[in-house]
Amino acid sequence: MIYSKEVIKHFKKPHNQGVIKNADSVGQVGNVTCGDVMKIYLKIDDKGPKSKPGPLIKDVKFETLGCAAAIAVSSALTDRVKGMTLEEALAVKKDDIVNDLGGLPAPKIHCSMLGLEALHKAIKQYK
Fold first, then answer.
1. Catalytic residue among 77, 111, 118, 123
2. What's the structural domain count of the chain?
C-alpha cells in the first residue's frame, strides 16, 4: 500500500498523542474487522472566547492501536478540531481528514470514519 508523505509524517510523529487526565469527555470506538481501536479525549472550555461563543475544544488527545492510516487519521483529526466549537467539530467530514492527509488508499478510508466516530461519541457524551 502506498501512503502519502503527509500520512507517513503523521504516523512517524503523531500530534496530540496521549491521555488527558480529568478529560471532560472520552469517546472510544473499534473495528472488529481490522482490529483498530481509537480513543479520543476532550478538554472543553464551556464558554469559549467572545469570537467563538459556546463550548470549545480546548485540548484534544488520542490513543490509537492500529495501522499507519489509523494513527495518521487520529493525528490529523485532532489537529483539525483543536480550537473548534463542538458544532464546528461535528461538521468535520471524512473527506476533510482524507484531504488533510493528501489521500488514503481506498481500503483505509474506513480509518477516517473511526476517528470521526470516536470524536462524535466524545462530543455526545459531553452534551
1. 111
2. 1
